[in-house]
Amino acid sequence: MALSLAHTLFSLLLLLPTSAVAQTNGKVTVGRSLSTTDSSPWVSPSGEFAFGFRQPNGSDFFLLSIWYDNIPDRTIVWYANGEKLAPRGSKVNLTADRGLVLTSSQGEELWTSSDQSQLAGAVASGVMNDTGNFVLEDSNFKNLWQSFQHPSDTMLPTQIMERGGVLSSRQSETNFSKGRFQLRFRQETGNLVLNTINLPTNDPNGPYYQIDSTAGDLNTSNSGKQLIFNASGYIYILRENDERITIEQESLPTGNLYFRVTLNFDGIFTLYSHPKTSAGNESWTPIWSVPDNICQDIPGDQSMTGVCGYNSVCKINPKDRRPICECPKRYSLLDPNDPYGSCKPDFIQAGCKEDELNSQRSLYYLEELTNTNWPFSDYMRLPTFTEENCKNSCLQDCMCAVAIFSTNNICWKKKLPLSNGRFSENDGGKVFIKVRKDNSTLPGPSFQNPVGKKKNQDRLILAGSVLLGCSLFVIFILIAAICHGFFYKKAVSKIDRNGVDMESGEEDKAILTDWAYDCFQEGTLDVLVGYDREAMDDMEKLERFVKVAIWCIQEGPSLRPTMRKVTHMLEGVVDVPIPPCPSPFNTT
């Protein structure tokens, strides 16, 4: 009887799902896979960490990630495919040749842990450890690859970063694509730095926070060799001579706690703690963060937008020392969904034509701001000025957007776009921003031509011929030009270019775009818009829109601007460089 019972129990054990068996020790064998439709991730032996798919912010796409599985918010601490989220039906396979391979339901490879040359068919298993480290092992249990050596934005206790290691911030709390901030343990010096990068490249700007591991000692044997996050929650640089440089000396809370250190999307590097036994209402508590004031510390001469976008102002929240971005009065966000983005004027700005110059003072007034500065947007310095002289000079100057009258009687005039805006109680002086007196706000999408103007079905957006080659998105963006009062009137139905009759139709797209580019190069935009007086009234704006359109239809995808940059260029927030020929191989 006892033998029969034992046999039955053993048989039932064999019938258990392999996933359940694998989860008891965190080990996953080669050939196993996880799909976005699987409800059970690969978990560590204690169940504290899990490896699998998550849906950021309830989106329809999935992020391959590792997270704390025993706390309510299941905080993500590592992720693989932030730049290319996986569609529903995707799966990750554990292979002998390449380790972890993430593919879509159509077979497209989205991410892989290693190439064949690195692993050479040696992977025998994967292990989700209780440290939060997912490891690929060979048959002798030797580590071949581990997530700890390929961090995203977070480090965990027992994790070690070697020289050359990098943490990259996210774009936002819910956008896991690469952000503007980096933590680098520099290969050349062993110094630890925080810096911005010039997206979409990895080109770094100067550091806004730095720990010199040599402490000024030119002896390289004293430089840093490892950044260590120990099991107790302390983070330090281990020097070649085995001395330690602790990042922050603050004492750590005691108790049964989780720790993590994260480079947040706003550039703040923060150590957090969280109770392991959660009642459901606890959250991560910041212990320390660096730098103390990123608004002041970020070098504006190298990272021109600072923490916030153009024309915005950076402030520090006194509660958590995290930055907040605000638009000045009569300015609003370019993208309402991006509170850290650029701001645009909510009023129509007069140009610099002679008749407009005469009305500058009657159109504008100066709004005084307190404790605000854009320290790197000056275009003119006027010494020994009075406050009244400074204000009048800005009001009468069509280029002036802000005037700052300093305590030493110097007037600084600044133009758009304003960069690296910051709030500071110690700057002194007075800040005046120029805004329009009347309610001449920028017209919305429902803007119509003044009554009495002849409606014309053939009126198109600025340089409509150029748009024949644009994507639907770019066409949508450039239609915003209508809001500025620009229209393209087709004055002719045929245009002879190199002996070719130009009839409207798909076959003429290349000819139309080449013709538009020729008009731009030769300074004959009046021909392009059919001598439309309304468009010709502001040739500067007309030229800007044409340049944006030409950039959008470049044959090389890498040359086309991003959605954000198109918006900024159309609004005049950033300069528009001279575009190359949109179809260089079609020109004759």
Report on this model:
Pfam families: B_lectin. This is Bulb-type lectin domain-containing protein. It comes from Carpinus fangiana. InterPro entries: Bulb-type_lectin_dom (IPR001480), Bulb-type_lectin_dom_sf (IPR036426), G-type_lectin_kinases/EP1-like (IPR051343). There is one protein chain. With about 600 residues, the chain is of the alpha+beta class. Among the domains are: about 20-150, Bulb-type lectin domain (Agglutinin, subunit A, Orthogonal Prism); about 355-435, Hepatocyte Growth Factor; about 460-570, no CATH class. Helices cover about 20% and strands about 30% of the residues. The strands form 11 sheets. Strands 29-35-32-33-31 form a 5-stranded antiparallel sheet. Strands 1-10-11-12 form a 4-stranded antiparallel sheet.
Task: Please specify the SSE layout and strand pairing.
Elements: H1 2-15, H2 18-25, E1 27-29, E2 33-35, E3 42-43, E4 49-54, E5 63-68, E6 76-79, E7 91-95, E8 99-103, E9 109-112, H3 116-119, E10 125-128, E11 134-137, E12 143-146, E13 154-155, E14 160-162, E15 166-170, E16 178-185, E17 192-197, E18 204-211, E19 224-229, E20 235-239, E21 244-246, E22 257-263, E23 269-275, E24 285-290, H4 294-297, E25 313-316, E26 323-326, E27 331-333, E28 343-345, H5 354-357, H6 360-363, E29 364-369, E30 372-373, E31 378-382, H7 387-395, E32 402-405, E33 411-414, E34 422-423, E35 430-436, E36 459-460, H8 464-467, H9 472-479, E37 488-489, H10 509-522, H11 525-528, H12 533-536, H13 539-552, H14 563-571
Antiparallel strand pairs: 1-10, 2-7, 3-4, 4-5, 5-6, 7-8, 8-9, 10-11, 11-12, 13-22, 14-19, 15-16, 16-17, 17-18, 19-20, 20-21, 22-23, 23-24, 25-26, 27-28, 29-35, 30-34, 31-33, 32-33, 32-35, 36-37
Helix pairs in contact: 10-13
